[in-house]
Amino acid sequence: MIEEESQKLTELPANPPTVKPLEYVEPEDGRQIFYCNNHQVGWTAHDIRLLFGELVEITETSVEIEQRVQVTMSWLQAKYLMRTLQERISAYERLNGEIKDVIVP
Hints:
- It contains two helices and three strands, in the order αβββα.
- The model has no long low-confidence stretch (mean pLDDT about 90).
- The chain has a three-stranded antiparallel sheet.
- It has a domain at about 35-95.
- It has helices at about 1-10, 75-95; strands at about 40-45, 45-60, 65-75.
- By secondary structure, it is of the alpha+beta class.
- The relative contact order is 0.10.
- A hairpin with a 3-residue loop joins strand 1 (about 40-45) and strand 2.
């Protein structure tokens, strides 16, 4: 019984589903572009929220960050994003050396 169950799990289906190519389409009114040098993260049990902002002013008493955009995604999509970023950062560092933390005066 256990061997039969194990074999069922490892067998490929006779007609595997076809993978359809992705088509990326830009909206008619164009794509919005944002610069980010600051981020915050919020989350729930169902998804994760990324807030992207830009540091716009530093004074003697404060640091002003303008929050520009919020992206909310599923945990699964966040994991895919993490993998993609890890791959791209590793490739960049192989070519250019380690990215080091910046110390803001």
